[in-house]
Structure formats: structure tokens, C-alpha cells
């Protein structure tokens, strides 16, 4: 049985629908991420799971039991808040011990478990410090330890890394995954950073305007986005407006205005004459110098319009004959090479059919 | 923030005038309104009272015996000679402590209520709390004399209930009860304001966190709200306790003959008995008591973390 089941949950504030008919099922031990732009309803959904807010309709089940009538303090669900919400008048040890004290554990047990927890987050030497005497990363670890110490069935994390700088953020991401594995606690993680979601999660629910757009593993979300929103929100992507010319069980033949025919893998429910979008990721686009002989089927001629060197890779922006700009990513792995093409170079681009996807409008 | 601090430090280090301009006025204020009067009082307490009030000269006038002139500890000896004075001191402390406690118990829920009300109502509610201060103190006490008087509806109501229960009727006015009512009424705003100022600063997410981690509403109050509010509790308590200790108008107007507090005693020495040295000695003891309470409060506030986590 699923650990957490969110069934047809809707939450409105006045006329505004913050969460719209959301269905999510989370399994025990999962690292599940809610990903979406600011204001898409992630926090609202999380607050309903924690019990601070109630859905207008729908159900939330934990271990198959409806928990909507249970107040937050009685739910075996803990939260790590974005602002950490550490108690300023308690030491690190006091903060971590808090959930155990509330649960009425014996002093001996509290002491030994706090000690163990402090070791887990490498804060043993900071046990007697107050929160304002800690760095951002240390506060963060206290918040994790406090959320995990009483073994909740579910740990909710609302953009816990949002306040950290990029380098620390990366370190904490690794730490977070380790902590989750050690504790064996199911995580529901909220972020609006797509790279963080891809790196950490077992599964991701992409949200937009209160709707869940797609729930899948990171690689599926990235490679097979279900719609334009998911495609553009996760990673960089090239898009072309296309029309379906031919639809068979093995492939689709599409026409791009001013460019010609392209082929993509087949997709259910697509009919001849449908219009939509063809998407292809920049790293799937191959780029080579132009030559007459190489200009064969599925190769498109263009001019290098611009490029962006970012160290490990260079992104070339190629303007095709119909005016569409396509981004192509080239790793700079050849020693000494930082640039393969100059602005104004004539090039050919191509991609494997199965790397591209057709999306209906 | 740090840069600003360093700039100020640098500035004051480098520029003595600026430093003195900053701390000078408060220092001058203290000197004129506290140190100088205190010194006058100390000297006064060490002199003999004059024949018809006031003070006897320090230097023995020509043709008089030196007895009754110069400096003496007589006032303090007199203070210690009669246990009545110690009792009055003790009673005053008791009244101040009880008043403070009642004010605290009444103010805390009110301050919490204001804090948790909608923002647009908060200022209005605070205004209502301080509004009584805008009317004259004596007028407000007279109002209580009427409310508690024998002919007031309140007295009638209480005595009717008592007579039904078979208990002898009570006079509310001119009793310790009336004094306490007046004390609490007058000083309530001074407890509400510091409490509200403190409670309003609490981050509400802390209560969410506590609840999320399993704390019931009772536990949330005692483990989070209360300890975080201690600086406000101490500040409010000091603002009530200290003036109540020296208060003479309320006991005089609302209390009976037996309800004399230090304030009344001191006032009598200057305006009634005209024993200035004894009045000064009483004042000095009172000032010392108040100062030590203020010091203790500051120390407690720091101990309880008022400074520790005030970022
Ligand atoms: N109590 C409330 N009353 C009215 N509107 C609200 C309330 N809480 C949230 N909203 C609205 O609901 C929408 C979703 O808010 P929510 O906080 O869930 O977004 P989010 O996805 O967490 O965004 P962010 O990434 O910025 O935290 C927002 O437009 C917000 O203004
Ligand atoms: Mg949010």
C-alpha cells in the first residue's frame, strides 16, 4: 500500500485556485519532489499534508487512513521549514531534543538519541550553541536532525536549501540524500530549482498554476516531457512549431515551415493534420562544418549566430534558413579546444530521430 | 551591519566631540535629575529636623547648645527602632508584588490577543489600552471611588448576593481591595505595552514548527511563547512594580486608615509631620530597593536569554 495518497485535492483562496484536483501517490522510502515555479501551490499542498491547512475537497491518506481530521501535532509527519524555524531560546541539543520531549520520551533515551543525531549531522561540538551562533549550513543540519529524530513517517522539506549559496547548496544536497538513505524516512521535497529536483529525487511531480503537469522519474521528466510547460521548465530545450504529415505505428512525419520534413518517434493519439511542437534537447543536436556532400536527409544548414562558453561546454546558437534558432551543446573535452566554430560559420545540424519528441498543442 | 558598526566605532574613536555629543545629554540628564537630588536627600537624611519643620542648621548658631545641630544618624536609628516601618515596607512590597502579578495575569492574554488579531485592528487595540492615560489620574481614581462607593450599583449587587448567602455586607471602598483595584487599573497599560511589543516580534513560524513537531497548544505556550516573552515580562513587571512601590495617592484615596504604604509615610514626613530627615531616610531606602530590583531585573533578562538571542 502506498504511504501517502493525495486524492483529488483542491484548495481555493477566494476565487483563486491554489491547488487544483491534485492526485499523487508516494511510496515508502521515496525521495519525492514537488517542482514548480513560484506561486504554483507547492507550499499550499505541503501545508495540507502537514495539517496546517485543509483541502476544500479531496482526501489525504496516510497508510490508507484519511488524516484530514488529525491536527498537525498528532500526525507522524514533520516539516523542515525554509527559514529553518529553529527555536532561538534553545541550544542545538535542545532543538533536536524537542520532538522527543513532546513525544514524552524518557530523559535517558532523549540524551542518547540526541547524541547519536548530533553525530549524524556532524554537530557534536556545537551541541550547546544557540541558533544565532551557527552558520547557515549548520542551522540547516540542525533543522534536518530535528525533523528526523523522532522517525516521522514522512518528512516534508519546503525549499530547505533556498537560503544557501550555490556551493553550500551542492554540499547540502549530497548530505540530504545520505541522511534520507540512513534514516530510511520518506521525503517530500519542495523546490523550484529543476537541477536540484533532477539530482535528488526518485520521482518528481512538476506543478504549474496549481495543477500537476507530470509525475515521473527525473530521466523520464527530462527526456519525455508531457507538454510544453514541462519541456521548457526542465532544462533547456529547442522547440519548433510543426504539423503532422504522416502518423504510423513506428514514427511520425512532421513538416516544419520553411525547413522541410522531420521524423520523430510515434505517439498515441496523434492524427494527420494535428499541429504541435517538436522538441529536441541542445545536447542531442549534433553540429558539424558545412559541406555540400554532408548535406543529406535530416541535416539542416545554418549559420552560427552566437555562442556561449561556460567552461565545460559551449552552447552554439545556429540560425536555420527559416529563421529558427537552434541551440547545440558541444563539450569542450578535447584538450586545448575551447571553440569549434566562429560566429558566421556555415554549419550543418542534425539529431537522432528518437531523441526528439512531438507534443500536441 | 558590521561595517556600520565599525564606522561608528571609528568615528567615535577618532572624534571625541562626537562621542561626547552622543552620550553627553543623557549623562547630563542623569546628573541633574538623579545624582544631584540623591545627594541632597542623603545630606538631608543625615541632618536634624528644624523646630518648626524644615531642617536645623548644620552649624550650631551662637548661644545655643550643640545638641540638635550638625550631622546625625538619628533618622536611620529611628527607622530601625520601630518595627512598624519595616512592616510598612514589607506591606508595600507585598502590594507591589501582588499588583504586578495581577497585572501580568490580566495583560498577557490581552497582549496575545492583540498580537494575534488582524493587523489593521492592532493599532486600534493598542490605542484603547493607552487611552485611559490621556485622562487625568485623579479623575480616574475619583471614578473608582464612585464605582466602589457604598451607594454604587456594584456595591448593591455584591451585598445583595452576600445577603442571600447569609453573609454580612461588605464595604468595598476604603479597603485593601480598593487599593489593589486602583493600583492594577492604573498600571495595566504599563504591563500590556512591553508585553505586546515583545510578543509582536515573535516569528509565527516557530509556533507552526513546534506544533508540527508534536507540541500541543499548552506546550507551545510554555515551551515557545512564554520563554521568548520573558524580556517583555521583566520589562512590564519593572514598569509596574517600581511605581506601585512609591505610590501614595491611590492608598490615600481608596484605602482605609490602615492601608498606609511607604509612599504615604514619606509624603507625611514632608507635608504632615514635617520631619524631613526621616522622610529622606525613608526615600533613600526606597530608592536603594528600587535600584536593586531594576538591577536584578536587568540581570534576569540577560540570564533568561533576552540578550542572548536578540540578534
Ligand atoms: N493564505 C492564503 N490566502 C490567499 N492566497 C494564498 C494563501 N496562501 C497561498 N496563497 C496563494 O496561493 C498561491 C500558491 O501559493 P504557494 O505558497 O503554495 O506557492 P509556492 O508554490 O509555494 O510558491 P513559492 O515557490 O514562491 O514558495 C499563491 O499565488 C499565493 O498567493
Ligand atoms: Mg512555497
Share of β-strand residues of chain B: under 5%
Q: From the structure provided, what is the oligomeric state, counting identical versus distinct chains? A: heterodimer
As residue ranges, the low-confidence spans of chain A are none
Residue fraction in strands of chain A: 35-45%
What general form of chain A does the structure show?
Answer: globular
Order of helices and strands of chain A: EEEHEEEHHHEHEHEEHHEEEEEEEEEE
Tell me, what's the shape of chain B?
globular
Going by helix content, strand content and strand pairing, the class of chain B is mainly alpha
What small molecules are bound in this structure?
adenosine-5'-triphosphate, magnesium ion
| Tally of individual domains of chain A | 2
Q: Give me the secondary-structure category of chain A.
A: alpha+beta
CATH fold naming of chain B: MetI-like fold
Ends distance of chain B: 11 Å
What does the largest sheet of chain B look like? none
The spatial strand order of the largest sheet of chain A comes to 6-7-8-3-9-10
- Count the DSSP helices of chain B: 13
Q: Roughly what percent helix of chain A?
A: 10-25%
CATH superfamily of chain B: MetI-like
